[in-house]
Specification:
With 325 residues, this protein is α/β, with parallel strands linked by helices. The strands form 4 sheets. The protein has a 7-stranded parallel sheet, sandwiched between helices. Strands 14-13-15-16-17 form a 5-stranded parallel sheet. Strand 4, helix 2 and strand 5 form a beta-alpha-beta unit. The radius of gyration is 21 Å and the shape is globular. InterPro entries: DHS-like_NAD/FAD-binding_dom (IPR029035), ETF_a/b_N (IPR014730), ETF_a/FixB (IPR001308), ETF_alpha_N (IPR033947), ETF_asu_C (IPR014731), ETF_asu_C_CS (IPR018206), Rossmann-like_a/b/a_fold (IPR014729).
Length: 325
């Protein structure tokens, strides 16, 4: 049994996102003895091809065009279809990122295929692979097996372990020419808010604050704790609505869905909309003054106390541990 798999790598600011390597690992589960082909789309992406090979791709196909400098579903859709028509794979894998969530249904519609989105685990291998994905805002999981047509799925970041990087691997890097035209939208400029630290969607550690931080200044100790742990800062919708922080930090049903190794919730009550975005974190630590707070129902460890007393104690202890290590 062998399936050719094509994996769309995602480049941001000239570097591949970690989910690209996790997608390659997922591809290995369904490829059997088949070939794994990385795909890179952009205006200057050839330099990222060796890294995809180092993480397990057998070869890489690039599509470069001036109109692909910034992501648009029209442009990237045309580029990806050019690769698909050349390679004719049995399996397609994307990351379940903002880009992947936008592009994958467009491609599935063009191929008239099914799409299994937001996969967190794969049971079995090859043609017997069963895809597990959360439903009902994470309250349940469903198992999906694809019986016919192309196998097309997206994987949630931070759930499938990437392989170790092997710099000794080598593979062919080729290019496909695509005539990118008739774009209904063109991105003229991208203005991003300056953020310090780790990308929240790929962070291994997240420290999140809720209304209990009482104001923008209440996030300062949380940021210090996140920096000490090499993590990212997040927030509940309540904190964002109260103007304590920017909405780009919002975690939950109407914000980002994250699955870090460690999630520290400080001053977050645990509304169901927030739990939908973080309840699948591997370890959850909750800090709240209210012993009846809903967040404790999903927490692995709970601390009943004032976050302004608990967090500084945690910071001090971590600093002492690092000094003595």
């Amino acid at each position: 049994m062998s399936n050719k798999v094509i994996v769309l790598g995602e480049v941001r600011d000239g570097a591949l996102r970690n989910v690209s390597f996790e997608a390659i690992a997922a591809a290995k589960k369904v490829a059997g003895d088949g070939e794994i082909v990385g795909v890179l789309i952009g205006d200057d992406v050839q330099g990222s091809a060796p890294e995809m090979i180092a993480y397990g791709a057998d070869r890489v196909v690039t599509v470069e065009h001036p109109h692909l400098k910034h992501y648009t579903s029209d442009g990237f859709g045309q580029a990806f279809m050019a690769v698909y028509e050349q390679e004719q794979p049995e399996v397609i894998v994307f990351g379940h990122t903002a880009q992947g969530k936008d592009l994958s249904p467009k491609i599935a519609a063009k191929l008239q295929s099914g799409l299994v989105s937001d996969v967190t685990e794969i049971e079995g291998e090859g043609d017997d692979a069963v895809f597990i994905r959360p439903i009902y805002s994470g309250k349940a999981f469903e198992k999906v097996k694809i019986n016919e047509g192309p196998v097309f799925f997206t994987i949630r970041p931070n759930n499938i372990q990437a392989a170790e990087k092997d710099g000794s691997r080598s593979g062919d890097v080729s290019s496909v020419t695509a005539d990118i035209q008739n774009l209904r939208s063109v991105v003229k400029e991208v203005v991003t808010k300056a953020t310090d630290g780790v990308d929240m969607s790929e962070a291994k550690v997240i420290v999140a604050g809720g209304r209990g931080v009482k104001g923008p200044e209440g996030f300062e100790p949380l940021k210090e704790l996140a920096n000490l742990l090499g993590g990212a800062i997040g927030a509940s919708r309540g904190a964002c609505d109260a103007d304590y922080c920017d909405y780009s930090l919002q975690i939950g049903q109407t914000g980002k869905v994250v699955t870090p190794d460690l999630y520290i919730a400080a001053g977050i009550s645990g509304a169901i909309q927030h739990l939908a975005g973080m309840s699948n974190s591997k370890v959850i630590v909750a800090i709240n003054k209210d012993p009846e707070a809903n967040i404790f129902k999903v927490a692995d460890y709970g601390i009943v106390g004032d976050l302004f007393e608990v967090v500084p104690m945690m910071i001090e202890e971590i600093k002492n541990t690092k000094v003595n290590a």
